[in-house]
Amino acid sequence: IDQTEEENAQKELDNFLILAIRHYMMSLEIGESDNLSIFRVVSLWLNNNHHDELQEELSRHINKVPTFKVLPVLPQLVARITENTGELSMSMLHNLIERCAKDHPHHVLPLLLALANSYKDKDYCQSPLQGASKPETRVVAAQHMLSKMKQKSNLKTLIRDMQVVSEAYISLANFPHTPDKSCKVFKIPKSEPITKLKNVEHVLCPTVTLPVKKSGNYQNVLGIQGFVETYYSVGGINVPKKIECICTDGRKRPQLVKGNDDLRQDAVMQQVFTIMNSLLQENKETLTRRLLIRTYKVVPLSQRSGVIEWCNNTTPLATYLIGGGGVTGAHTRYRKEDWSPTVCR
């Protein structure tokens, strides 16, 4: 009796699971009021990866969902790809990512390139890097997917040039900086590939946030005109470099190029804040009060390199707490009886 009850309970759970997926997918196909349900769909999909009936139900709907609704969860989906496309679930995942890349290349290709270039730092780093001797299967899968898209779509030129731009950033990120206390501005060596990037107008400046267009028409993006030939040393353990990218609108946009640092978690946090802003926009009270979280662009380029949008008119948290430049920090102002940061160190 217990076994029969358990089987019946499992069947009931399976029925509810299929019913939930079916209606979530139908909502995404034809509705616009609950696009964030894509997160629930992906959660159910990935947590029931070997549920054949669920995969079949998904396969009947997945190609009908507009690709712009999938973009918010794409970082998590790209990280799940493998070479095993024989499985229905993985085949659907590959096809979905390729559809998104064709419709929204400037949003999707950087994710694939970052994964495909996971171990690219070793080509530019002078010191040997520790890591897996054999590439992860998802890295190889990303490389194969990019090669496939270059052969079968009109993205060949864009993928090629985005790869060139990405490698130029990675090279600069790993360029060894020689500290000089008497100088904060340094010349970028002519040998660095980034100095040769000129008029790459169809490649989006990586630190520019491009609004998603349902139509997939991205003809007039803010491309790269070139780079200022100097960089600033901003200190820090890994000595990131502040550079300026000259965009096709004539503006110089400051960027922070970081090496020897994994920016993937930083990018995920910005993704979380973006989702929170979407929720704040949907609530009448928070919308009226214009509540939001200020975000900035974080673009991982490999496992240990990336570029960050430089935020002007901001104060580092440490400076706010501890103080500096003749300004007393908040810790001293509000907690005078506590030990000073110097004593704590």
TrEMBL record:
Keyword Cell cycle in annotation: yes
Keyword ATP-binding (UniProt): yes
Enzyme Commission number(s): 2.7.11.1
GO cellular component: nucleus
Subcellular localization: Nucleus
GO molecular function, a single term: ATP binding
Keywords (A to Z) from UniProt: ATP-binding, Cell cycle, DNA damage, Kinase, Nucleotide-binding, Nucleus, Serine/threonine-protein kinase, Transferase
GO biological process, one term: DNA damage response
Catalytic activity of the protein: L-seryl-[protein] + ATP = O-phospho-L-seryl-[protein] + ADP + H(+); L-threonyl-[protein] + ATP = O-phospho-L-threonyl-[protein] + ADP + H(+)
InterPro entries (UniProt xref): ATM_plant, HEAT_ATR, Kinase-like_dom_sf, PI3/4_kinase_cat_dom, PI3/4_kinase_CS, PIK_FAT
EC main group: transferase
The FAT domain, residue ranges: 1-118
Domain PI3K/PI4K catalytic residues, every copy: 227-345
Protein name: Serine/threonine-protein kinase ATM
Species whose genome carries this gene: Cuerna arida
